[in-house]
Amino acid sequence: MTNARACCAVLLVFVVLLAQGCVTVGPKPRPTPKIPPQPRDAKADIMLLNIAPPSDLDGDTVPDSFNASTHMFDERYQLPIKVTGRVEFTLMARSDDTPIHTWDFADNDLQRHLFEAQVGPVYRFRLQIPIDAEPVRERFVNIRCVLTDPEGHVTQAWHRDMPWLSVGG
Question: How many helices (H) and strands (E) does the chain have?
Fold first, then answer.
């Protein structure tokens, strides 16, 4: 009987010590805010366009590609939103906005460029000038990105005066 009492006493002490270890001392942590899903009727009112410096993929010393990413925002919602429609990038001469090359992404092609970032959805693109196109001879270029949703709502953003640093430019 004494063994049973000793085991019960040891077990009781163990449970009390274990329960003591679970007590929080100090202020309680803040609850994680609940962010609702994007509105069903969300429309991109604002576009954040990020452009990386151009790079030379084919090794001919002339830049021929760059990375672009876009976050789309509805003014009523605090995080980026997912969109449908068509996104068009246009590389232009800085001097007169003459189009040099255009890239077009619509429907499923656009959705293939959708990634989930820590802050929400982002569309990422690697834009490459075709090998058979004339090299870009501009020292500085402008880039325009236009989103046209299925209802015809248009949102655009510009990246101006990007150094292209083309050889012979």
Answer: 2, 8
